[in-house]
Design goal:
Blueprint (H helix, E strand, L loop, with lengths): L2 H7 L9 H16 L4 E3 L14 E2 L2 E2 L2 H15 L6 E3 H13 L4 H4 L6 H14 L1
Antiparallel strand pairs: 1-4, 2-3
């Protein structure tokens, strides 16, 4: 999994680039939430979430520079490196503790087209925690 996808999953509410992307992301997230002990390899290249993305061209992202930056930043907050395998629960916990709880999403994702959606979801996190 791309590290930035692990962050995106924490805010995902069923909207996306197109129906196939939403369906794919929904299923992957459901599988991980149902089995949070699933091992996940962190990678800096296209993953299963990228497959139906409109920016994916034969496994290469049209916005590679931006997503690479997101991935590297999230890896740092996960205290991990590319190729590491962590269980999904641990990834989710580290993201919640090191990014969401510290209100760093806006800083990390300042030029992401989904930032507004995520910040609205983030506010729900603070209300509930």
């Amino acid at each position: 999994m791309r590290p930035h996808h692990a962050l995106c999953m924490q805010y995902f509410i069923g909207v996306g680039y197109d129906p196939s992307f939403v369906e794919n992301m929904t299923q992957i997230l459901k599988n991980l939430e149902t089995a949070p002990e699933t091992p996940v390899r962190l990678i800096l290249s296209a993953d299963d979430i990228c497959r139906p993305c409109i920016y994916n061209e034969a496994g290469l992202c049209k916005t590679a520079e931006k997503v690479s930056r997101f991935d590297k930043q999230v890896l740092r907050f996960l205290n991990a490196k590319s190729g590491d395998i962590l269980v999904y629960r641990e990834i989710r916990n580290r993201i919640n503790q090191n990014i969401i709880a510290k209100k760093l999403t806006a800083e990390l994702c300042h030029d992401c087209e989904w930032l507004e959606t995520c910040l609205l979801e983030e506010e729900k996190y603070y209300v509930n925690n």
